[in-house]
Write a structure and sequence with these properties.
The complex is a heterodimer of chains A (743) and B (81). Chain A is of the alpha+beta class and 743 residues long. Helix content of chain A is 27%, strand content 25%. Chain B is α+β, with helices and mostly antiparallel strands and 81 residues long. In chain B, a hairpin with a 2-residue loop joins strand 3 and strand 4. Classes of the chains: A alpha+beta (743), B alpha+beta (81).
Chain lengths: 743, 81
């Protein structure tokens, strides 16, 4: 279902063609990094620390090196020594320990051998002498007075402090007068919230193949959200120049933010260099869970005040986000995502901690879901206490264009009110709550970003086109690029082939993150198409001996003086006679990303004997700006919702007292599957972003923000128990219900 | 000359001032002037902040032109997942 501010006027944008890469994916033909095999290829295995924190006294690989099939071993001593102030220092230390192992699972050495079994056996034979050190495993332990230092290289960001610290960053921002805001309030609610670390859960484990030649250059086939970033990060970790590295993007089996950093590629390159053979390195699921970036665990206190008339007067919050072993994902972003309401008085403290757990990484609207859990729970309680409809309370306080964001700058044109109204007017919200069930509502915000993109559009001799970009396709972006090119050129979308090119075949392009690909790379495609159209008009003028000023581009053809018409195939057929191949390239650093809002509603039933929550009905509305390919927008909304549902109800990292993850497999790390869920009804709201030629805002991330508070609020309605810790799993919810206290 | 809005973190350098009129024709020149007036603030603005100009986040906006009517916000860096 789509709620559109403006009537649609496009021929291709907004249609639902079969995605160009779909057939290969559903038939198993698509080649992911782990599918690749090179002649003479070796397999690699990693040696990981069994300690959460330990000094590496020595590493003896002599036994391993003497084992059958072993061709190379690398340790931290083989990598470049980066200055701790280098922006990639933490990434480099995370992929190979230097001096200290900082968490259970931290890589301390790697082995390449002829077979995977030989590599695994040799990795087990590497002798590492550790001196265990005190480990810091939780936020509370990290901030405790006299706590041991989890990572002696860490300095608190921007503090100027020279001493090691367990704080990655400490920030504060806000506006107005907090005390006056609370004095003006008739109702004040304050709570503390806790959320566990959770994993992005992409189905494809990290994998790569590296082939280092005798010329000192390396080719890497990688699964990532940004192969240019793989190149630059690998170059930094090795101390190489980027021209020595070519990265070819393999198909990607999910990333959700977790593949915006790297773990394997520099290791595989060094092993390949030492062995003079290609090296394939593939993580197991256990390795993925133990040692790649979860979303941070959090501890959040939040206090909100409102008048009896429903006006929110103030919000004060202190948010701790655990970065893990090194600086990972910023606490600030979570705090800044508190942006949905007019808040005249606001005080936010955002603190990142460092612990001896896996380094955190971005996860879809990074840090916003945890912040929304706190704020949207308090908003729901306000509505409950005031006796008003929870959507009406939000509408009363909703930000509109010109209102301040959490950071202070004004919101551009946004569609929050329209998204709230879409749910308020939905069939779901206007249906009775099933007997014995509870209904919850919550909202979410995400910034969306621009960044750098490049695109080349090549017209082939028969008038078909190839759209070349550098944005890995993690959410249907090839289809959206083709649709925008089709709309610009007036060429049927099935005559356009969108491809993702390697780092030597297309201009620099930033990571596919921040819901930016269709927005920013899409703008590059549009700009390239518009340049190409100018050239097509010139060629048509040449062919017809006409003045180019009298040539217009109409529905895929050059129209000369309003009559004579030359189609793209007719022009490309004459290309060699009119100036050669028809191609155009555009690059940009995109500004004007359009913020996105989402509103979700859920009906849940809670089994009061087991604590199990069953979702009876779920509807999600989100402002897409313009849905270029509505099916994939709906898919993004549904996918984000499901990930948020898993985060809310089941998923958590469980560590033992030694910092060992106890549930490092999908049997014990319980993600939702299709049979756990009802159909997620998606409502696309379209309030176009004026800074994009088609109004795109980006849709990948916002959908994961509302589900946690939506379900917490629904559970509160169903049971009367207000849950403040995640996950709201059956045992935890049962304890809260039977204990009669908030959970 | 432009109006510059600073986050709470930055205000320890400015004696609590959160909005300032600053000389300069580009964002980079504003930062240079702010560093001259408040030593230590400049690196936070160049390395640790994104720039929003008149409400729009501008990636790497150091060369963006500003004038007397421009509102410049230095906000925490934003990335995504």
């Amino acid at each position: 279902m789509t709620v559109t501010e403006n009537p649609r006027t496009y021929k291709y944008v907004g249609t639902r063609p079969v995605r160009h890469d779909g057939l290969d994916k559903v038939t198993g033909k698509a080649r992911f990094a782990a599918d690749l095999d090179m002649t003479g290829q070796l397999r690699a295995a990693l040696v990981r620390s069994p300690h959460a924190h330990a000094r590496i006294v020595s590493i003896d690989a002599s036994k391993a090196e003497a084992m059958p099939g072993v061709k190379a071993v690398v340790t931290g001593a083989d990598f470049a020594d980066l200055d701790p102030t280098h922006p990639e220092f933490d990434m480099a230390v995370n992929l190979m320990a230097r001096g200290e192992a900082l968490y259970n699972g931290h890589v301390v050495a790697a082995v390449a051998a002829v077979t995977a079994a030989q590599a695994a056996a040799a990795a087990a034979a590497v002798e590492v002498d550790y001196e265990p050190l005190p480990a810091v495993l939780t936020i509370d332990e990290a901030i405790a007075k006299g706590a041991p230092i989890a990572n002696t290289t860490n300095r608190t960001l921007f503090s100027g402090d020279a001493e090691p610290s367990n704080l990655a960053s400490v920030n504060e921002f806000g506006r107005g007068d907090i005390e006056a805001g609370f004095e003006a309030a008739d109702i004040i609610i304050e709570r503390e919230f806790r959320t566990a670390a959770v994993h992005q859960g992409y189905i494809e484990p990290h994998a790569c193949v590296a082939d280092c030649g005798q010329d000192g250059k390396a080719v890497i086939w990688a699964s990532s959200q940004g192969h240019f970033a793989v190149r630059s990060k690998t170059a930094a970790a090795l101390g190489w120049s980027t021209d020595r590295i070519k990265v070819i993007p393999a198909e990607i089996g999910g990333g959700f933010g977790g593949k915006t950093t790297i773990y394997l590629e520099p290791v595989a390159v060094l092993l390949s260099q030492k062995a003079a053979r290609p090296v394939k390195l593939v993580m197991s699921r256990e390795e993925v869970l133990r040692a790649t970036g979860p979303a941070p665990a959090t501890k959040i206190t939040a206090k909100i005040g409102a008048t009896n008339d429903g006006e929110i007067t103030t919000l004060q919050s202190t948010m701790y986000f655990d970065n893990g072993s090194t600086k990972g994902f910023s606490a600030l972003t979570g705090a800044m995502s508190v942006a949905s309401y007019k808040l005249p008085n606001l005080e936010l403290h955002a603190i990142g901690t460092v612990t001896n757990t896996a380094r955190s990484a971005a996860y879809r609207a990074p840090s916003a879901p945890q912040a929304a859990f706190a704020v949207e729970t308090l908003i729901d309680e306000l509505a409950q206490r005031l006796g008003v409809d929870p959507i009406d309370l939000r509408l009363q306080n909703a930000v509109v264009e010109g209102d301040a964001t959490a950071m202070g700058m004004p919101h551009p044109k946004i569609g929050f009110v329209e998204t709230l109204e879409a749910i308020k007017n939905s069939d779901h919200y206007n249906s009775p709550v099933p007997e014995g069930a509870g209904r919850g509502v919550a909202t979410g915000f995400w910034f969306n970003i621009g960044e750098q993109s490049s695109a080349t559009v090549n017209l082939n001799e028969d008038g078909t086109a190839t759209v070349v970009t550098g944005s890995p396709d993690i959410g249907g972006s090839r289809a959206s690029m083709a649709l925008m090119a089709a709309e610009e050129l007036g060429l049927a979308v099935d005559r356009i082939t969108p491809i993702v090119a390697d780092t030597e075949s297309v201009g620099f392009t930033d990571i596919t993150e921040g819901s930016r690909a269709t927005f920013a790379t899409g703008m590059a495609v549009v700009n390239a198409c518009r340049e190409l159209i100018e050239e097509l008009k010139q060629r048509a003028a040449t062919i017809k001996s006409a003045d180019v000023e009298r040539v217009e581009w109409v529905d895929g053809a050059a129209v000369i003086e309003g009559e004579d018409r030359l189609t793209i195939p007719e022009i490309t057929a004459m290309a060699k006679n009119t100036g050669g191949p028809l191609t155009a390239t555009a690059s940009l650093n995109a500004a004007g990303a359009g913020p996105s809002f989402a509103v979700h509603v859920a009906d849940v039933a809670v089994d009061e004997e087991t604590g199990e929550t069953t979702i009876l009905r779920y509807t999600a509305a989100q402002d897409a700006g313009t849905a270029i390919h509505p099916s994939y927008v709906e898919g993004q909304i549904q996918g984000g919702s499901v990930q948020g549902i898993g985060w809310a109800l089941n998923e958590e990292y469980i560590y033992d007292s030694n910092g060992v993850m106890e549930n490092a497999g999908f049997l014990d790390y319980r993600m939702p599957v299709a049979s756990d869920l009802p159909m997620i009804d998606a409502i696309i709201v379209e309030v176009p972003n004026p800074s994009h030629p088609y109004g795109v805002r980006g849709v990948g991330e916002t959908g994961i923000v509302p589900p946690i508070p939506t379900l917490a609020n629904a559970i509160a309605a169903a049971t009367g128990v207000r849950m403040t810790s995640l996950p709201m799993s059956p045992p935890r919810l049962l304890a809260a219900i039977t204990g009669g206290a908030d959970g | 000359m432009a109006t510059v809005h600073l986050q709470a973190d930055h205000r320890r350098f400015t004696g609590g001032e959160k909005t300032l009129r600053v000389d300069g024709g580009t964002v980079g020149e504003l930062i240079t002037e702010l560093e001259r007036r408040y030593p230590g603030l400049g690196p936070l603005l160049t390395d640790g902040a994104s720039v929003a100009i008149d409400g729009e986040l501008i990636p790497d906006g150091i060369f963006e032109k500003v004038d007397a009517s421009t509102e410049v916000y230095f906000v925490a860096p934003i990335s995504g997942g």
